[in-house]
Amino acid sequence: MREALRGDKRVDADALVARLDAVRRFLDAVDGEVPDTRLVGAHTLVERAGTRLALSRDHTVVALAGATGSGKSSLFNSLAGMELSPVGVRRPTTGVAHACVWGPLDGGNRLLDWVGVLPRHRFVRESALDGDDESALHGLILLDLPDFDSVQRSHRLEVDRLLGLVDLVVWVVDPQKYADRVIHNSYLREFHRHREVTVVVLNQADRLPPAELPRVLADLRRLLDVDGLDGVPLLATTAVEPNGMTGLREALERAVSDRQAALRRLWGDADSVTAALGELVAVEAPGHTPDAETIRTLDRALADAAGVPTVTAAVEGAYRQRAGAATGWPLVRGWRRLRPDPLRRLHLTGPATDPQQPAQAPVAATSVPEPTAAQQSALGLAIRAVGGRSGGDLPAPWPAAVTAAARSRLADLPDALDAAVAATDLGMERRPLWWRLVGGVQWLVTLAAVVGLGWLALGYALRALGLPALEYPRVGETPLPTVLLLGGLLAGLLVAAVTGPVIRWAARRARQRAEGRLTEEVARVGAEYVLTPVRDLVDRYALARRAWQDAAG
């Protein structure tokens, strides 16, 4: 954007507006994250620049600023050709700003209202008697400011306020106090970014011997160079000689005809503001926030705080219990069902099937034990690590803001984690097909044992009653009922022995599957409640840095 200042030092209005818009975008990006005390200059620039550009572009506001006794009021009256501002040696002489407008006063009234010059202190330099003598200054609004070294603090405050609003400043010094530290340290040095709208005059030059004037001007030029104002116009003036104002008048005529002073002043203000804002966005935004290892640590801490180990252990226990009840001997299945189901004890019965039910309940949905103090501490450390790794390299105050963003939803995490666990499909709602097959086999062998036992009992009862004994079919030398009874019992034991390791292996698989699903859900909660606020803030930092780069050019 620096091309807006070309070789002839002209400022392009569109480029200036673009810089101001970039400052606005910067303020929007950092709103609520950077202390307002560090943004006062930027807010002031946007407000003042917007107002100044909306007001008269045909007028140039020039201020005569100086210390008591420098003769600025005499210069003001001499340029105006009238006694408008009081002149004297009493401290302070000028207590309020006086304004003289070249041209119709109506054209500059709104501008003077904004600057804050009272109507009774506004004057017009427009007369038919002048002919075209004053036409070169048509559009000039000349202000005579209060003395900046006044013993009245209100005068100094008024000077500081007006210096922030005018388009061009003419600093008036006298041969006795031109090297005064107050004007150099408190004022001139602060205007080093406004060289294009600064003029320095050594007034009352008639008090110096002709041989001394060049030496004094050279010494003043040296001081101005030290202040960073190298190249600013330095003029010798006197209000008591006919040609003593020629140089200053010509400088004012150029400023009025150029109509660039307001744009140059605002451009310099933008330079000052963006230089200060650069400290807030001094480094590039991190590309990945945070790193993968920090995210894994956060996910582990969230899983522990959500009770994932407890839930997965319950999944394994519930699988073994349910599988045992489905594949064990039918005669003892009822006993297994009397034992409490580990998942149901935690109020985990699977995901909600009602589409009208929200995915995450606002209150606790399970009976998973509360996290221990150690788990809470580990989670707090993991969240702080997310903030530290994401914003630790950023300039102040961003690291603290990033950490605060990571912890911004900490109070909502417990309910969110509990709801996520309750909504997770643990894979326990469907009965595997092999359970049914094994259960069917157990029913068959149990039925065979029952038939064999009943057959043997019938034969025993007939013999006890003295009735003819039953002739049992034989398998080899063994009666078939005995084969059915013993075979059924042994087959049941064998099936249970074979399916036991399978059940334990399948239970571990179910635990791993549930752990994966729970970890995924817990990570989603962590991303929403911890990582997303952090990334949003880092994105805002990146937006602020891009806006600053646009504003700084």
From TrEMBL:
Low complexity compositional bias, start-end: 351-369
Gene3D superfamilies in alphabetical order: P-loop containing nucleotide triphosphate hydrolases
Protein name: 50S ribosome-binding GTPase
Pfam families xref list: MMR_HSR1 (PF01926)
Organism phylogeny: Bacteria, Bacillati, Actinomycetota, Actinomycetes, Micromonosporales
Region (Disordered): 345-370
Xref: PANTHER family: GTPASE ERA (PTHR42698), GTPASE ERA, MITOCHONDRIAL (PTHR42698:SF1)
Family annotation (SUPFAM superfamilies): P-loop containing nucleoside triphosphate hydrolases (SSF52540)
Keyword Plastid: no
Species, as recorded: Micromonospora humida
Annotated ranges, domain G: 62-203
InterPro entries to which the protein is assigned, alphabetical: GTP-bd, GTPase_Era-like, P-loop_NTPase
Residue stretches spanning the membrane: 437-462, 482-503
Keywords assigned: Membrane, Transmembrane, Transmembrane helix
Protein's UniProt keywords contain ATP-binding: no
